[in-house]
Amino acid sequence: MSSPAPARPRPVHQAADLLAAYLPGSFYYSSARGSLLADGVYSPVHAVPGKRARAAAEVLDAALVAGVTEPVVAGAIGFRPDAPSSLVVPAVVRRAGPPKASGPVAPFGGGTWSVSPRPAPEVYTTAVAKALDEIRDGDLRKIVLARCLDVTGGDPIAVPRLLARLVHADPAAHAFAVDVSAPGDSAPRTLIGASPELLVSRRGRVVTANPLAGSRPRVVDDAENARRVADLLASEKDRAEHAHVAAQVAEVLGRFCVDLDVPAEPEVIGTPTMWHLSTRISGRLADPGDAGSSALGLAEALHPTPAVCGVPTALARDTIAALEPEDRGYYAGLVGWTDLDGDGEWVVTIRCAEVRDRTVRLFAGAGVVAGSDPAAELAETGAKFGTMLRALGLEGVE
User: What is the pLDDT of residues 214-225, one digit of tens each?
Assistant: First the structure.
C-alpha cells in the first residue's frame, strides 16, 4: 500500500509584501480580516444582476475541478442594476494577515494639478434643494446625492504608490484596487479606495454588516472633535438618517438568518477624515450551503443600501439618475471577494476614485433627508473627498 503524499505547506506571505507586489491590473483588498492579492484571470464571471452569486458558485466549482487551488471570485460591481461588473476567478491568489502601520510612503511630486468639480458646487446645491422639494411633496424619504472631482496631474498617476499611501494612512480601512478597464478605454482604469463601510462579511454561518450614515468632518483639535461626536449622537436628523439604513440592512439579513443581533443605539466610529454613526449587525445563517447565502449573494441582496441610495430604493435610484449629471459607474457599488465555501467580504465603494493615466476622478456623496441644508451637504462631500485628496497630497481642495 502506498503512503499518502505529504501535504504541501501553504506559502506564508506578509501583508507588506503583498502591498509591495501590487501592480496595476492586479486585485488588491485588505481589511482587519486580512490581505488578498490576486493576479491573472482564470475565468470571468458572467451573469445578470441578482444572479451573480449562483454564477460565481458554478465558476468556483469548475475551477476547483480544473485544479485551481482555493479559488475565489473577486472584483467590483457598479451602482445601478445595469452597471458593469469586473468579477473574475483569478489565476493566482496570495493571502496574508491584515496590514500594519508602517513608515511614510513617498508623496506625489508637487507639479501642477488641475481640478474640475463635476457638477459645479452651485449646481450640486441646487440638486440638493430639488431633492428636498421631492421629499417634502412626494414619497421620497431619503436620497444620497454625489458629485465628482476630476484631478489631473502632469504625469501618469502611480497607482501602486497611491494604494500604499491609502493603506498607510488607515490600515484598518477596507482598502482596494481593482482593474475596471472597459472596451474603448484609452488607458487602463483602476478603481481604488479605502472604504470605511463593511457591507457584509461571512465566516461560516456568521454574517456581519456595519452600515454607516450620519457624518461630521474630523479635525485636528481633540476638544472640537469631542464636541462634534456629541453633536452627531444628539442629532435628530442624523439619527433618523442612520435608522433608515440600519433598519433596511437588518430587514434584508433577517431573510437569511435565524438569529440577528441589532444594537438599539448607534455608536460613533472615526476615520482619519470623518466621524460616522455606526451600527454593527450580526447574525447566524439559516442555510449556509445555499449560493444565495454566500458573501456575494448577501451583498447582492443588500445592494444598494440607503447609505448610498435612499428610501424607497427604486424611487431614490431614479431620482439620482435625474439629478446627478455624471454616471456613478462603480462608485457606491460593491468591491470584495467570495471563496468556494461562500465566505468572503464585500464593502461599499465609497472614499474611492477611478484612476486613468493622468486623471483621478474622485467621488463623494451626502444623505439628504427632511431638514438637510444644501450648503452643509456640499461641505460634507468636500470633507469626504479628503481621504483621496490626502493620499494625493492635495488637502484642502474641494
Answer: 999 999 999 999
